[in-house]
């Protein structure tokens, strides 16, 4: 495959090789640089240095605290802290220009709840609030009072996150992390890992598509939707595959008054404001995994599934015009919708940072920090991400996350 700016690796071997330089890989590189300084050699190999097909660039760039697992709530709370303090954290790496402000739009999330799902939704809200989130459960009457444009006739209520939820600049986050990591001595190259050399239950080297063989002490799999492809190079398997996410930007003849949150319909379709326009999309799992290089659009997805769901939930959306669309990939963990973080128990220097099922962007600050802690400190020092360990995969012991969109 051609690379935009081919630059061979500067060394023949590195202490750490990170496969994948999008937001999870770059967060890992950033936190390693904070912990190690220039005391270790770290190489980040990114096959798509333009990030044209990166899940980071093609994501909907949102963050929420509405999860069913306490650890995911805590991960997002750190993510929000990281986003809000990003400009100050990055300031040393932007000496001659303003550090990036990620433009966090704290409009919240609104989950539509079916009548059958009310008890479970109330339990999730109670859990989230016990951890410091500001989620509230609104019955249909109060829900309609607060959001009069919403059709609540078939709802049992709504779970609304009034604070600490919203959307932000995904590429601003990635570019800042990359810049900070590179300024601290982390090396990035435009290339692809196509194979691994093994010896005695360890990865001894990675093979690049341009022919170089690069020795390594530790390999971090941060390959996003290609996670299984990379794991297979070390003879390993994880239940992670790319699924298409269809996104559409549209205009509506009828404006929506007030401060509109990110609305999650019962159908799984979401919609939120983008200035005077709106962003919507879905991830139809019934279509099955996509090919790694298949980013083809399905324009009829809007007409067939998304618009009917929007019109039903928000009747003011009766006259819409699509302005833009794109297709991205989710790295979907088919076992339990949660990330896989940690070393393999047998291939002892192979680290997983995979399978975040559409939440990789918002979870990247905490995950990158956790991976760096495992590598440098030998264990988690801040958030305990042990429930994400690889060992649950071969044991078929799901650590389920119910709130997946």
Automatic annotation (TrEMBL):
Q: Which UniProt keywords apply?
A: Oxidoreductase
Q: Does the keyword Oxidoreductase apply?
A: yes
Among the GO biological process terms of this entry, one is:
mitochondrial respiratory chain complex I assembly
* Gene3D superfamilies recorded: D-Amino Acid Oxidase, subunit A, domain 2 (3.30.9.10), FAD/NAD(P)-binding domain (3.50.50.60)
Q: Which residues form the FAD dependent oxidoreductase domain?
A: 15-374
Q: Where is the signal peptide?
A: none
- GO MF: oxidoreductase activity
Keyword Oxidoreductase annotated = yes
GO cellular component term, pick one: cytoplasm
Taxonomically, which superkingdom?
Bacteria
Q: Which Pfam families match?
A: DAO
Q: Per its record, how is this protein called by name?
A: Glycine/D-amino acid oxidase
Q: What is the lineage of its organism?
A: Bacteria, Pseudomonadati, Pseudomonadota, Alphaproteobacteria, Rhodobacterales
């Amino acid at each position: 495959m051609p690379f935009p700016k081919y630059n061979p690796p500067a060394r023949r071997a590195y202490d750490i090789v990170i496969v994948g330089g999008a937001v999870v890989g770059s967060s890992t590189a950033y936190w390693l640089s904070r912990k190690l300084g220039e005391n270790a050699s770290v190489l980040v190999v990114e096959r798509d240095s333009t990030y044209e097909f990166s899940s980071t660039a093609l994501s909907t760039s949102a963050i929420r605290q509405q999860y069913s697992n306490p650890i995911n709530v805590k991960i997002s709370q750190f993510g929000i802290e990281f986003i809000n303090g990003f400009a100050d954290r990055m300031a040393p790496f932007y000496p001659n220009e303003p550090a990036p402000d990620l433009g966090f739009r704290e409009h919240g999330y609104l989950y539509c709840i079916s009548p059958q799902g009310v008890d479970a939704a109330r339990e999730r809200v109670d859990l989230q609030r016990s951890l410091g989130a500001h989620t509230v459960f609104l019955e249909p009457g109060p829900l309609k009072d607060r959001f009069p444009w919403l059709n609540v006739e078939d709802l049992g209520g709504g779970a609304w996150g009034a604070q600490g939820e919203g959307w932000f600049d995904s590429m601003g986050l990635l570019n800042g992390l990359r810049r900070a990591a590179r300024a601290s001595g982390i090396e990035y190259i435009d290339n692809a890992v196509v194979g691994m050399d093994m010896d005695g239950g360890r990865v001894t080297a990675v093979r690049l598509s341009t022919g170089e063989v690069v020795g390594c002490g530790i390999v971090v799999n941060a390959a996003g939707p290609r996670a299984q492809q990379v794991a297979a190079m070390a003879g390993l398997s994880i239940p992670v595959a790319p699924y298409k996410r269809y996104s559409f930007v549209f205009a509506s003849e009828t404006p929506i008054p007030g401060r509109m949150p990110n609305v999650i319909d019962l159908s799984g379709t979401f919609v939120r404001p983008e200035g005077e326009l709106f962003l919507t999309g879905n991830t139809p799992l019934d279509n099955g995994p996509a090919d790694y290089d298949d980013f083809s659009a399905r324009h009829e997805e809007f007409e067939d599934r998304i618009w009917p769901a929007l019109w039903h939930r928000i009747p003011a959306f009766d006259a819409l015009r699509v302005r833009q669309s794109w297709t991205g990939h989710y790295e979907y963990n088919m076992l339990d919708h949660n990330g896989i973080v940690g070393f393999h128990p047998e291939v002892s220097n192979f680290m997983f940072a995979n399978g975040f099922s559409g939440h990789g962007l918002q979870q990247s600050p905490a995950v990158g920090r956790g991976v760096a802690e495992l590598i440098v400190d030998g264990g988690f020092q801040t958030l305990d991400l042990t429930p994400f360990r690889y060992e649950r995969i071969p044991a078929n012991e799901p650590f389920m996350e119910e709130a997946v969109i």
